Amino acid sequence: MKRHPALLSLSLAFLPSLLFAAAPKTHTVALGAARRVSYTQPDATPEAQIDQTSAIKVRPLILDGRQKDWTTGNTHEITDRTFAIRRALRVNDALPSDASPRWIWQPGPWITVDRVTGHITALHLPDFDPLVSDAVWFRDYAAYCGTATTAKGASLYVIVAQLGARRPVVQKLLGKWPQPNRATPVCQPAKWDRLPLRVAIQPTGGESTTYDVVGTSSIVEEGDNDDGN
User: Fold this and answer.
1) Which one, 16, 61, 104, 164, has the greatest CB density within 10 A?
2) pTM of whole model > 0.85?
């Protein structure tokens, strides 16, 4: 079969562009310089000394040279390409009678960032309460005290969540919520053990309890099954 010279030239002309289009885009993910901002707990009252305004450090999350969000706290490296970090929110605290917005900073929920794809995912950790929960990570697990409201009222729980799992790996009732004269923080930071896999959580002023952790799922990242990765 004889090939037409014009068609052959046209195919060769498009070949470099096709090869270029097939190359994956490289993303640059970075955290900017930290700065201190004022922070007041949402349940603050003028009478309580613990409700005095304090400060938190916030850093911009920068993707491909553009700021995508504000963050607070340290990162947790889940895999060699994905990390978790907590968002920092600017909330309008103005009353309807106020003439202008009143912006305040609040620690927000957790997100994961994929350095390869540049994808940012909001995490919906079960029973996570920004006012109460202080998540401590190990691998793809997060351990913290959380709150939940049911028909019987609100309660305080020990929670161990695993990314990709539909339900908490551990969910243990601690008591009713809110508690009178509650301590701050409500729970001490969780302490992890690798072998055997377990975590100890202690309510402030209470006893520490250790929980065995049995995972239910594995991490799946975008592009894991692609031939190009």
Assistant:
1) 61
2) no
